[in-house]
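>> received
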Amino acid sequence: MALAGSVVLCGPAEAQTMQDLQRQIDELKATIAELKAAQGGAGQSGPMPLAAAPAVSPTRIATAQPTAQPVIPVPTTQLAASPVAPKRAWYDRIKVRGYTQMRFNEIVSGDRTAPDGQSRLRSVHDGSVGDNSNFSLRRVRLVLQGDLSDHVSFYLQPDFATNVSNQSGGERREGFGQLRDAYVDTFIGDDHRFRLRFGQSKVPFGWENLQSSSNRLTLDRSDGINSAIPSERDLGINAYYTPPEVQRVWDRLEHDGQKLFGNYGAFGLGVYNGQGTNRPETNDGVMTVAMVTWPFALDGLGGAFEGQVLEVGAAAIRNRVQPELRTGGVSDTAFADERFGVHAILYPQPIGFQAEWNWGRGPEYDATSQSIETKRLNGGYIQTMGRVKTSPLGPFMPYARWQYYRGGWKALPNAPRLETDEFELGIEFQPTPPIELTIAYARMERREADERRDGRADGNLIRTQLQWNY
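>> returned
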């Protein structure tokens, strides 16, 4: 065909007739047949060089008269253009995931009940710790997240296990939906090191507070750290920055399967309403928060520290908050709510340690004056844990934690005082990747979060949780 193209192109295409083209094709066929015969007779194994095409009279082509017959277009050889990948629409980048936690708590001994005015064994984190309680759904979360563009992403998370109190006869209703997170991230630069977050999201105070409940080893957060931001979230704007060397260490830990706190930046700074999750602002002030955390790879210290990572950090809050009143509405007075906290985590490889503590002042009900006042507070926890990656029962992590807190709980009516001493011993199994089973024993000594009840209750609990991830 290449020979045919070279002959056809010798003269003007419009001067060629069907008879001329056919005659040229016949001559080419005869030449090709002669070449094949010559090659076969010579017994050559390699390709024969091409012979020159027979001459075609340019005069004959040039003087050919055009007829009414259509002109056959001369085929040309062109390279096919590389296919261009279609740009993905933003809705093709949405991911849907979530998790559900089903619990069973049993008070095996202690102050399950108490007379009026005396504390009962209760927890501010789990409403199913109490008298005559069995199974409960602690969390039912559904997460929608995705990239709206290369520099903008969104995150939306409701919870369908919210409880609503103050029903008939004080009965609590369960299984209501509540907004937890609704924010958008805007990344400055192509490396995504720096981002601005707008909306309702977690407040960067406390390593454990930022860690997802789906990823946390213990069943509940500690009273001392969580009392700073009881719902972990508020509405506002914050900025996060993560240097490349920090991101490399976190990527290494994630690849190893460690339970991280989530990437909230090595440096975080934010401003929020300060009243808590899903509550309207009540004053013109804002809550300001700052946090820094830094992971140190300890490989250079020798064989015993090979693969180990120590993460340390600190955070601070400055706020003025108006607690809800038991008589209705919120306090007319805005109380100082200021804290400073520190944290340290040695990731389990295979043994690890974790500790946090915070000090400050905040609103607390005073029984003597029968009013809310600004008072001192402090509390935190110390925890040790192990990690076994493989076993006949799958990966598992045993842990032990002691926690302590003395101070107000601003998220409940009249900001009641908490006095917490608790020891928890547990183990988490993962028989298959989507399933996590936690079994724990807890020795609790707590003051009930109700200013109308005095003293502390104590008791022993067996607690279990089944979590399935999707």
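>> The chain has six helices and 16 strands.
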